[in-house]
Amino acid sequence: MKLSQEWKKVFLYSVLILVISVLPVKEIKILEKSGADKLIHFCLYLILALIVIHSLIKSFHPYIYSFLYCLCWGTFVEAVQYLVPYRTFEVRDLFFNSLGSIVGLSFSYKFRRQR
Predict the structure, then answer these.
(1) Separation in Å, CA 73 to CA 26, 63, 64, 76, 113
(2) Lowest mean pLDDT across 23-27, 70-74, 76-80, 110-114
(3) How many domains does the chain contain in total?
(4) Is residue 13 in a domain?
(5) Is 26 within the bounds of a domain?
(6) Residue 42 class from Cβ within 10 Å (0-12 exposed, 13-18 middle, 19+ buried)?
(7) What domain range is 112 assigned to?
(8) Quick count: other Cβ atoms within 10 Å of Cβ 48?
(9) What is the pLDDT of residues 47-106, one digit of tens each?
(10) Is residue 23 part of a domain?
């Protein structure tokens, strides 16, 4: 089975998010205290939503499936973080992942409607 170029991008970006999320980073505590880590979650998943919707736009209910993909991937990444001793599972991270996904999909929807 051959993956399309769009799905290769989804796969690579999803793996990038996973790798970033499990790497041991000393600066994480600083980012958490300042709230910047939530902004990072928001931005990462906004971009993921845009990449996924681009891959699914010609399918049935692309916005619903794009959001579900982002939600499932974010939950999977948080579950992996729960298993990694130096990272933690946070419901607030899931919230900002979902919020970024919703904003990204909203941008895509508005842009496509204007065209």
Answers:
(1) 24, 15, 14, 5, 27
(2) 23-27
(3) 1
(4) no
(5) no
(6) buried
(7) 40-115
(8) 24
(9) 999 999 999 988 899 999 999 999 999 999 999 999 998 888 999 999 999 999 999 999
(10) no
